[in-house]
Amino acid sequence: LLLNVKLYAEMCLSIYYLIMSVYGWIIWKKRKVEGANQVAWSTNNELLIAVMISVVGFFVFYFVLRNHTDSDVPLLDAFVSSTAWAGMWLLAKRKIENWIFLNVSNIVAIPLLFHKKLPLMACLTIFLFVVAIFGFIDWKKIIGKRSLRTI
After folding, report:
1. Do 80 and 116 form a contact (C-beta atoms < 8 A)?
2. Which residues contact 77 (CB under 8 A, 6 or more apart)?
């Protein structure tokens, strides 16, 4: 489906989601055994890495899409995928900012998917956008409650 509409970076993103889901599951399971399975704000270093994933990923995707594919939306496809890559990396590490990165990706992906005549995928992305809002709110409450307990 994504191949047919020339969303090549989104296609790579789907594969990345699968890999990161397995990675995240392993990390979360390991941390649960160790008792460190808590959501948290990112450190400055983790945020820097996430931003670098987004920026470097954007330029790599854009270069490849622009120069080696027939993509008609290389800029948007590169942006959506690179910000989502960073978001998934943060999600695997249980960092609250993952929801922000994922929704930055989603807010651009929604009109892109409608433009590519993929209304069901666009509606799914709208749903995921809403889920990410609630995810951020819930995780913020969890972090806040934990902070209150340590005072």
Report:
1. no
2. 7, 8, 9, 10, 61, 65, 71, 112
